[in-house]
Amino acid sequence: MPSGRSFCVSGQQHGRGVPRHENAGSAVPRYQVIRDALEASIRSGRVPQGLVIIEKPVADIFGTSRAPVRRALKELHDQGLLQRFEGRGYLAGTSASAEPIRQRLDARVLGLETDTRITVDSRALADRIQDDVQQVLATAMAFGQFRVQAIELATHYGVSRTVAREVLMRLRDRRIVGKDSSGHWVVGPLTARAMREDYEIRRVLEPVALRGSAPKLGDDELRAMQRRLDQAMNGSAEPSVSLLREIERDLHERCLRFHDNDRMRGIIRHSQLPLVVNNVFYMVVGRAKESPALAEHACVIAHLLRKDAGAAALSLESHLEAAAERTRQRLKALSVFPEPQLPDYLLRVT
């Protein structure tokens, strides 16, 4: 390996992706999942007429709070599929005169046992919604400044205000959101200066962290990273946004995690705004398989598999230099695209 900076360059210039738009925060609201599942069970007759349905057992089955269940049951009542009666809860079916059937509610009793769409999510509520909220806010910040209405956010996801605030606090730690002088939660705008400053930090610190972490990275893990890169570069279809995110995490998070300087890793972790631009760019514009960034990632992983941490660190530095210019151009390009559809809990400020 010659001395000096290690450049790994391969492939031709990638073509432009076909412009496409995806609505931010496209996950189906939990109340709608619950409503649709129960509606199907009632209409199919899997739920007996007169079965007493109350909020808490349904919330337990779906692994959610009571708020989305309450909304789902109300909508089913409005459709005439649930009936009010003198007791607590609702009677299943279209007959208000049906004899109440009280029994312990579970997925089998509600006719949900064979519904492959239904999974019980045992994670904390904040964990369940955080990725989706982050995607929405990251998308928004590339198109201006928005106020984040915590109450409306809680309603949108069917969680409590406390859970919504917890998610926003976590995202503030990641520099996705902040508070204005009036104490309102705000997101954006992304600026070229913020991108430049983050890349300056990363170019200095990430190669050092990689040198320190490299000896502890296992070959099996590195080969898994290599397979994801091969899938993105050589697969029959354009790589998905989720795959590209995993590839970014491979190099810029997982490969650095064993460095023993916690403070340095913390600074790197809080200097990831450029990834926001790239993720939004992937969603709005698309990305060709032969993107130079993927080849640059592959070069670093190849050096790590050869146990050459020095060459890997030099290649990572080269990658970050090239990525800084690509990200600057992407941020500029995003300014000419129309704003994607955003949830109602965001209000444009500028």
TrEMBL record:
It holds the Pfam family FCD. PROSITE patterns: HTH_GNTR. Signal peptide: none annotated. The keyword DNA-binding applies. InterPro entries: GntR_C, TF_FadR/GntR_C, Tscrpt_reg_HTH_GntR, WH-like_DNA-bd_sf, WH_DNA-bd_sf. Residues 1-24 are annotated as: Disordered. Residues 28-95 form the HTH gntR-type domain. Keywords: DNA-binding, Transcription, Transcription regulation. GO terms for molecular function: DNA binding; DNA-binding transcription factor activity. This is GntR family transcriptional regulator. It comes from Sediminicurvatus halobius.
